[in-house]
Amino acid sequence: DSQGNPITQQRIKGTAEYSVSEEDGTFQAEVTGKEGLYIDSKRYHCRFDMAFPKEELPDFILDVGTVVCK
Fold this sequence. Notes:
The chain is mainly β. 0% of the residues lie in helices and 14% in strands. It has strands at residues 36-40, 45-49.
């Protein structure tokens, strides 16, 4: 969140399948890289886009960095 706390137990929307953030704020989702992922709940409203280099499109794990929701 805006104070540096992990965004926990929030649904990550914009994915083909159901995805929820874990207690440490991490989440796992199958994406193509073209989705606009977002959290829209009573507590948080944020959107984050991911741009994948073309050479990295096969299956892999990607750290999208820190996402701050307000």
